[in-house]
Amino acid sequence: MNRSKIRMLGFIFLLFIVSPIIGKAEAGETIKLGMSTALSGPSRDLGQSMSLGVKTYIDRVNRAGGVNQRKIELIIMDDGYQANAALKNAKKLLDQGVVAMIGNVGTPTAKLTEPFSNKHKIVFFAPYSGANLLRDYSVSPFTFNFRASYSEEMEVIIGRIFEQGVEPRRVSFFIQDDAYGNAGLAAANDALVKRGFNNISDLEVFRYSRNTNDVSQALKALLKMKIKPLAIILVGTYGPSSKFINYSSTLLPNTLFFNLSFVGAHTLSKNLDVNSNKIFITQVVPSIGSDITATKELREQLAKRNKSSMYNSITLEGYVAAKILVNALEKMKGEVDGVRLRNSLESGAVFDVGLGHSMMFTPEEHQASHKVWLLQYDRKNQFIDIDGGNR
Q: Residue 327's closest CA among 128, 77, 112, 57?
C-alpha cells in the first residue's frame, strides 16, 4: 500500500471519529439571549426586578438540562435607562451572537434598540413598555410583546375616571418628558376621543425630565391652576411619581391619581407617604397575592435564591416572559437563530404559562396578552386588585 493510500485511509478514519464529536458540540452549544436594562440610576428597581424574573426562570431551565440539550446563556448589561447606552449594549450583544433581546426596560431605550434588533433579525421580546411604537409588526416583524399596551391600560383608567363622574375637563397629566410620557399621553387622547372628548390640548400637562426626581415645576404649575383637577393621570417612574403624589394629594385630598403599570406597584407603594385610598395603578399581570401557578412557582424559586423580598409584579412579568420564550425555543429542532425563533413564536400554538388564561402568537398577532388589572392603594401601604382583571 503506497503512502497516498495510507494518508487517504487515515483521513477517512479521522472523519469517522471526529464527526460524532462535531454533532455533539453543535447540540451542546449555548443559546445566547441578551438583555439591556436599568440596573443603576433612579429606575434601577425596575430593571433589577425584570432581570431577576427572567434569570430565575432561565436558571431553573438550565438546572433541568437546558433546552433540547442546550443551555441558555443570558447576557445582562446595564444601560441606566439611557437610550444611547442601551443602543451601545445592543451592538455588543449582536457581536456576541444573541438570537433574542428580552426584557428591555423603557420606551426611550426601546425606541433605539427595537429597530436595531429588527434590522439584524434579532427577536426583540417582551419589552417592559406598552408603547404603540413597539406594536407596528409590519415594520418590526421580529418584535413580540407579552403585555397589554398603554392604550389598553388607558382604556381602563379613563373608563374608571368616567365611572367616578369626573368630567374630562377636570383631568390633568403628570408625564415624563420623553417618548414614554408622550406615548401615555397619546394613549389617553385616543381613549378620550372614543368617548367624545376631542380637546386634550386644552388639558393641563405637567412634565419632568427623565432620570430626575425634580417635580418642582410641575407642582408650581398645579398650584397656579384656578380650577384644580379631580383626576391626575401619571405617566412616570416611581421616584418622581411618588414625590408628586406625596405633595399634591395633601393639597388636593379629593383628587384621584392614576398610574400606568410601568411605575411598578411595589416601588410606588414603597415611596408613598400618604394615607389615601384615591391612588390607583394598572397592572398587566395578576395580583402577586393570587395563588395561580405562575405566582406559586416564582415565590418558590425566589425563596430558594433568598430573594423573596424581590417578589413583585415586575419580577413576575420577567419570569412569565422567559417562560413564553423558552416555550418557543423548546419547539425548535436544529440550529437556533432569530428567523427560526420568530417562526416558532408565530406558529399559532396556544400556550398556558400559569397565568390563568391561554395565549398565543400568530404572524398577524405579536402581543400575547390583552388583560389589564386595576389596583387601588388601601391605606396599608399596598395596592389591592379591585376588579380581578375583568376589564
A: 57
Cell (9 digits) for 308: 423573596
What architecture does CATH give domain 28-147+291-360?
A: 3-Layer(aba) Sandwich (3.40)
Q: What is the pTM of this model?
A: 0.89
- Report the distance separating Cα 75 and Cα 95, nearest Å: 12
Any alpha helices (H) in the chain, and if so which ranges? 3-28, 44-63, 83-95, 107-119, 150-163, 179-194, 216-224, 238-251, 265-271, 293-304, 313-330, 338-345
Q: How many helices (H) and strands (E) does the chain have?
A: 12, 12
Please state the domain extents for the chain: 28-147+291-360, 150-283+374-385
Burial-class residue 44 by CB neighbours within 10 Å (0-12, 13-18, 19+).
Answer: middle
Distance CA 144, CA 364 (A): 11
- Specify the 3-state DSSP secondary structure of 102: strand
Sole residue written with cell 391619581: 257
Separation CA 195–CA 211 (nearest Å): 34
- 3-state SS assignment for residue 332: coil
For residue 100, is pLDDT > 90?
yes
Beta bridge partners of 32: 73
Read off the pLDDT of residues 125-163 as tens digits, 9 standing for 90 and up. 999 999 999 999 999 999 999 999 999 999 999 999 999
Q: Determine the longest span between alpha carbons in the chain, in angstroms.
A: 105
CA–CA distance, 304 with 345 (Å, rounded to integer): 30
Homologous superfamily (CATH) of 150-283+374-385 is Response regulator (3.40.50.2300)
